[in-house]
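Suppose you are handed a protein chain with no further information: no name, no annotation, nothing but its sequence. What can you learn? This example shows the usual starting point.
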Amino acid sequence: MRELELKYGCNPNQKPARIYMDEGELPLTVLNGKPGYINFMDALNSWQLVKALKKATGLPAAASFKHVSPAGAALGTPLTDVEKQIYFADGFDTSPIACAYIKARGADRLCSYGDWAALSDVCDEATARFLAMEVSDGIIAPGYTDEALAILKTKKKGNYNVVQIDPNYEPSPIETRHIYGITFQQGYNNFEINESLLDNIVTENKELPEAARHDLLLALLTLKYTQSNSVCYVKNGQTIGVGAGQQSRIHCTRLAGSKADNWMLRQHPKVLGLQFVDNIRRPNRDNAIDVYISDEYEDVLAEGVWQETFKVKPEPLTREEKKAWIAQMHGVSVGSDAFFPFGDNVERARKSGVEYIAQPGGSIRDDNVIETCNKYGIVMAFTGMRLFHH
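A reasonable first move is to predict its three-dimensional structure. Written in structure tokens, the prediction is:
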């Protein structure tokens, strides 16, 4: 099949719409549902990310995409008991690829609502059973077991989008796009991200453990497929905060850092001890936790809305408790798709436990950025490679 007609483009008024190949067959097959224009944009961007992650690390990888940027990405390492609890994976059988997706979605469950899932490996029954419980628009993978496909075909009243892609497909070395009737052309970004990018450590502290190297690779690969400007925080083989599409570098760092802080706060004993009403839907539980850890929760308590969600009126998580809990974060890695122009980015990253940074370098203020890292003993590598994605 060389082309596939779509219902409409980005918006319902944008017709006609299709995906097609100038030469050869489409490298994908729709096994269920009818994916749309944005679905395919998410599918193809997310597939590139998980494929590259698997190649760079040798581990199964997954991503949760929304509006052509990852809400989360992760490697298929085992889940801790706390992670199972905060990602609502208690009681699920888990395989390496299932762990990867559970962590990718768990990185930012609010932003992953209605996501597009991507898997580097064949989707198995364990992954499908977890995905069946979540609000999601579709999935792309190199294959599906019979059991997994049967489960996914029951989702969304039988309309869940399931796409299989040829893992051996390689794109044309030249890509084109049209904006306002004008054709743009550029070489496909086939730059390979690997550990050699982390060799140029410019700070006094040059100790970069293997786990941090994996996390920095995950950050950089995530950034390669995130709408720029972008900054990514990673810990233990999963993104914990992605700041995408901001015009200011510091706003990227703050946005991603606030998401990383929320990821940490979700592990606070008060959050783990919340008693929800019976049969609460997973999205409602996500929203309730987000409000609980926000500065708005005491206002909600005052309005008496808590009875709709909790069995017992929760004791507020004070700002002092939040600050003290976040201060325990450590071993976090951060990547940036372009250079840090000022040391303020390092100052903000440090507040979320960042100890390792990878960024291109090249600012006229590199000395100031390096000096700020040295002040806190942070390790920083200059990759020399910008990773803009638009």
